[in-house]
Every structure is written in structure tokens, then in C-alpha cells.
Design goal:
The chain is of the alpha/beta class. It has 10 helices and 11 strands. Strands 8-7-4-3-2-1-11-10-9 form a 9-stranded parallel β-sheet. Strands 5-6 form a two-stranded antiparallel sheet. Strand 1, helix 2 and strand 2 form a beta-alpha-beta unit. Helix 7 runs parallel beside helix 8 and helix 9 packs across helix 10. The longest helix has 15 residues.
Length: 266
């Protein structure tokens, strides 16, 4: 793969604080305060999950930015207070509070915001349109990108795909899981979460599965959806896309190994 394509594909895991990674991913004796620095030296992105549950301090975001390489990027989970509600169009205050909480301290290292919805949340076209209108295109002069992670089959609708494309919001590609798979490309970037690592494989996935995901990521970076991924609507226009791929859930202890194996292949 050409180098410029490889740079467009970022691969990582969820968070960096996980006790079983000590000695398995992190070297024995590594100080806990240096774990992010180490993880960022092996991965090209990390999805921060803590922002889903509550606000973090502005000083924390500034510290995380300082501890990571220049080309490193963080994805953030949007707060559950915005997504776990009956009327999504009323989430404006929660969204505004989130962007004032210090997340912009990440500056150029701020990647997409993943707005994750519960599996019980069904697609209501008008209400979802109201929610997408609340998502800011920029904050403090900095561009902000958004992805939505939906987990109900009602979202397998051409109307939902059209709405996401209208707002240039990515639909999270959920893979190797029980969640609905919607691989349609609806934004200038792709956001994938693969959840199939298992204890029996040293790298979480078999070599064959890792090769397949590396191939899929390369296709997605060209704006092309591989035939073995499920889509809802007709494909959009192909072209260069940045890809964010996170190895999440599954057998979590193996996730860093799987991410590094993918980075090596890319």
C-alpha cells in the first residue's frame, strides 16, 4: 500500500487504562502515568470512552495532547446525556456543554466524535434530523467531525443513509458483533469498530481475518465498500477517505495486539 494511503488509515483501541494489558501490552514495570505515551508509540489513534459517562477536565485533554506524537489522533465518545434520551432534538444543551468541557484542548489531535445510541433506540427520521442539526461543524474555529453509532435494525433505511450524507456524518461500521452492520459511506471519513477478538488467537484475530480487515480498510480509504460488508443504499462517490478503525470489545486483552498487527499490514 502506498505510504499516503497508510497515513489515511488510523488504527487503535478503546482507552489505554486496562489492568490486564500490564505485562501483556505494556512492559513490566512501566509507570502507569507513562501508559498513554507507550500506547501512542504503538498505535495511531485511541477512542476515549470516559467522555461518554461524564466530563473530563480541560487539563486532562491538554495533558493527553502533550503526551502523544504529533500525528496522533483521539476519537471521543459523545456524552450519553445527549444520546440516551427520548427526544434527541432536545439534546442541544448537553452537546453545547460537552464542547465547552475542555475537549477542544486536544486541538489538532481531536478526531471524530462518536455519538453512540442504545440498542433500543429506533430510527425516527424527524427527531434524528433534529439531532444531526445540533452537531456543530466547527467549534472555536476548529473543524469538528461526527459519527453516529446506531444499534437498532430500524436504521437500515435509505432515509437514514440520505440524512447522514446530507449532514456529512459517518455511520459507525460495527463488525464481528451482534449489532446491525451498516457499511454505507456517508462522510469524508470512515469510522469502524471491530469487536471479534478472541482468547484463542495470540493477535486476537487469525492471520486470515487480519489480512481481510487490512484489505477492507484499504478499500474504505479509497471510498469503496468491500463486497463482504453489508450496506443499505447505493454507494456514494468513491475517493480518498480517512479511516478510523478501532479494535473494541471482544477479548479485550488481545485488542492492542490485533491493532498492532493491522498497523503492520498497512
Amino acid at each position: 500500500m502506498p505510504q499516503n494511503d497508510a497515513k489515511r488509515i488510523r488504527v487503535g483501541v478503546g482507552g489505554w487504562t486496562f489492568e490486564p494489558w500490564r505485562g501483556a501490552f505494556y512492559p513490566e514495570g512501566l509507570a502507569q502515568k507513562r501508559e498513554l505515551e507507550y500506547a501512542a508509540s504503538k498505535l495511531t489513534s485511541i477512542e476515549i470512552n470516559g467522555t461518554y459517562y461524564g466530563s473530563q477536565k480541560p487539563e486532562s485533554f491538554a495533558k493527553w495532547r502533550a503526551e502523544t506524537p504529533a500525528d496522533f489522533v483521539f476519537a471521543l465518545k459523545g456524552p450519553r446525556f445527549a444520546t440516551n434520551r427520548r427526544v434527541l432534538a432536545e439534546a442541544g444543551e448537553s452537546i453545547e456543554r460537552f464542547f465547552k468541557s475542555g475537549v477542544m484542548e486536544l486541538k489538532e489531535k481531536l478526531g471524530p466524535i462518536n455519538w453512540q445510541f442504545m440498542a433500543t433506540k429506533k430510527f425516527d427520521p424527524d427527531d434524528f434530523a433534529g439531532f444531526l442539526k445540533l452537531l456543530p461543524k466547527s467549534v472555536d474555529g476548529n473543524k469538528v467531525r461526527h459519527a453516529v453509532e446506531v444499534r437498532h435494525d430500524s436504521f437500515k433505511s435509505p432515509d437514514f443513509i440520505a440524512l447522514a450524507r446530507e449532514h456529512e456524518v459517518a455511520i459507525v461500521l460495527a463488525a464481528d458483533s451482534e449489532f446491525p452492520q451498516i457499511a454505507d459511506i456517508t462522510a469524508p471519513f470512515v469510522y469502524a469498530r471491530i469487536m471479534g477478538t478472541n482468547e484463542g488467537e495470540a493477535a486476537g484475530y487469525s492471520n486470515k481475518a487480519l489480512d481481510a480487515w487490512a484489505k477492507r480498510a484499504a478499500a474504505l480509504a479509497e471510498g469503496k465498500v468491500p463486497d463482504d460488508l453489508s450496506t443499505v443504499d447505493k454507494p456514494g462517490k468513491a475517493g480518498p477517505h480517512e479511516v478510523f478503525l478501532y479494535v473494541i470489545s471482544g477479548y479485550k486483552e488481545r485488542n492492542p495486539a490485533a491493532a498492532m498487527a493491522l498497523i503492520e499490514r498497512l
